[in-house]
Amino acid sequence: MKYFKDLTIEEMFEARDWWSSRSDDHRAWKNGVEQQKIIGEKIKELGGWNKEILTSYNKHAPKELEISEEEFNNYFLKN
Question: Residues 14, 41: contact at Cβ < 8 Å?
């Protein structure tokens, strides 16, 4: 079994608990915060957000959490 931090970015998006921030269970919420931190570190390690990472993210994210092309260009590429 791999630890979350040892997964590829694609595997992280696939395994991510997308709704942990809405959980009543503090453990689930805390786990989601940690997953997001690890994902952020992995994206930095890969050189930051790019079209490939965006495509992978949107492939696995629930429709409500997908990142639009406009949002990506205006926010993610500028940071």
Answer: no
